[in-house]
Specification:
Layout lengths: L11 E6 L5 E2 L2 E2 L2 H6 L2 E7 L11 E3 L6 E5 L2 E7 L5 E3 L5 E3 L3 E6 L6 E2 L2 E2 L10 E7 L12 E4 L5 E5 L2 E7 L3 E4 L1
Antiparallel strand pairs: 1-4, 1-7, 2-3, 3-15, 4-5, 5-8, 6-7, 8-9, 10-13, 10-16, 11-12, 13-14, 14-17, 15-16
């Protein structure tokens, strides 16, 4: 079977999963993303797909789409709505489907007397600044705006030596 000759129906793409690496185009991916192979290159787009094109590198959730194997290679058929963001050749991120990328504010270390509270006992970051947004995101969620978001929401990536968090628009609780 020739993968590139497949005909996809609906808003779907066929992605060749990337081998396990710690970074893709200067974006350092968290260990859980590397283990789950959630980054790949688009090989085939259905005729109905307009935003994405063949050759783009994309990031998607662990259980998104359907896994397909052919001649020992791993592929995944994805709905376009399942894709978090595109990794551009210019070293930037283009978010899709109402995802936003946030720089979380660091939670200060807490001390009780002279005892430092363990990292696991600290509060989780829930405040940050939007750095990338989808063109379809809510008009009030602009780059540079500070937000408060749900605890444990999204997933972390490291981009240009900076820790970032990819969130769904629904995870935003308050715009400051």
């Amino acid at each position: 079977m020739l993968i590139k000759e497949l005909s996809l129906i609906g808003n779907k793409v066929l992605v060749k999963t990337k081998p396990k690496e710690d970074r893709i185009k200067d974006i350092f991916l968290p260990t859980e993303v590397i283990k789950k192979r959630t980054v790949g290159t688009i090989l085939v787009c259905s005729d109905e797909v307009s935003v994405l094109s063949v050759g783009m590198d994309v990031c998607y959730p662990e259980f998104a789409g359907v896994e397909v194997s052919n001649d020992g290679e791993e592929y995944r058929v994805l709905e376009t709505t399942e894709i978090y963001f595109i990794l551009t050749d210019q070293g930037s991120i283009i978010t899709l489907n109402n995802y936003i990328v946030v720089v979380p504010e660091k939670v200060e270390d807490k001390f009780r007397g002279v005892v430092k509270i363990a990292t696991d006992a600290k509060d989780v970051d829930t405040k940050g600044t939007i750095t990338y947004r989808s063109p379809t995101s809510h008009p009030k969620l602009l780059e540079g705006k500070t937000i408060i978001y749900s605890k444990f929401a999204g997933f972390k990536v490291k981009f240009n030596n900076q820790e970032l968090l990819v969130l769904q628009e629904e995870d935003v609780l308050v715009l400051i």
